[in-house]
Amino acid sequence: MLFSYRVLDASGAVRQGAIEASCQADALELLREKGQVPLELKAQTVAENHRKVISGAQKIRHTDVVAFVRELATLLKSGVGLSDAFSTLLETTDHPRMKESLSRLNTAVLAGERFSAALEKSDFGLPQYVHALARAGEATGDLGNALARSADQLEFEEKMKNEAREALTYPMILVFTGIVAISFIFAFVVPRFAGMFQGRKVDLPLLSQWVLGTGVYVHDHWVGVLFGFAGVAVGAYLLFRSRAARQHMARVSARLPIMSGWIAGAETTRWTSMLAVLVQSKVPILMCMDLAALSVLLPENANRLRSVQDDVRRGKRLSSAIEERRLLEGASLTMLKVGEKSGQLGAMLEHVASYASDKHRALQRSVVALIEPVSILVIGLVLGVVMVGVVMAMTSLTEIKL
């Protein structure tokens, strides 16, 4: 049960927030254990929670979770205790669902549960590597820096997604506009020309028959065609929300001459940045490789990373296993070998990830620069075919031979 409260803390300041407890007496006891003097404590009613659900306030966004990890890391690095950090976050958080989740997390920690275990049971939906970093931070006594690296990685992954989304926005708008224009021509322009041939015995060329026939069909069934396009759009959106669909799309794109470099660069950036964060946080190397394999989309890359994990388990050097699997080459592989010899593997992996990220962005710009003219060319060819088909039909009507 969730209770909202107002209390006096040890410094005499008035604080307010929410706390999870089985009853009011337990909530009061939890507040007193933290050295706080309760001023007001009341249970949140079902009606209040219902209003929050209707207003959409119950949904925790990914940005809210990243902000929570970043703020908690900052407080812990500043020397604030875990319990006080939770109190500060509860005081500054206005999100009802976030308050509820934080209260449950705080209650579990106060009850003696390890933070990493409580975090894993929470409803924040954090990736597995965040939990691994939290466990490593607890083991080394450096939880603040471990969470800070988690926030860095979460923000980096979100940045990669946003960059790809922004890069493809204009080509997608261009393609959508072209489809709308072509559909309009087929639905409303071509049928007007087709009407001129009704009742006349004219030997139309095959291209003209296809263009006019398509225009008449789209005009007569425009509602079904419209719903068909909408269904395809919604189906594609729902389909690509699943990881399996994204993996299949990445696998197909990786076979294309131009897209292959872009996909490979993105994959390398993902697993090297993940590995750098984990190694710097003193996570065991075998667990690092397992989590790095989970971070990539292509199954073949995941299998190669797990093969590297098996080689390292048998005693082979990480750089040798990665070189044998051709996961890195050139300057990146050299930096990895230098990092192993100097004992600065985490720092060198960070440089490798930065280098891979720069290459990926350059390839992304090249791919996007190529997609735009190709889209324009395809749309222009379709429109040209329609116009040629109509003109050929008109010349057949007037018996003008080209």
TrEMBL record:
Regions crossing the membrane: 168-190, 221-240, 367-394
Superkingdom: Bacteria
Chief subcellular location: membrane
UniProt domain Type II secretion system protein GspF: residue ranges: 68-191, 271-392
The entry's keywords: Cell membrane, Membrane, Transmembrane, Transmembrane helix
Pfam families: T2SSF (PF00482)
Presence of the UniProt keyword Oxidoreductase in the record: no
Subcellular location: Cell membrane
Membrane topology field: Multi-pass membrane protein
PANTHER family given in the database record: GENERAL SECRETION PATHWAY PROTEIN, TYPE II SECRETION SYSTEM PROTEIN F-RELATED
Family: Belongs to the GSP F family.
Protein name as catalogued: Type II secretion system F family protein
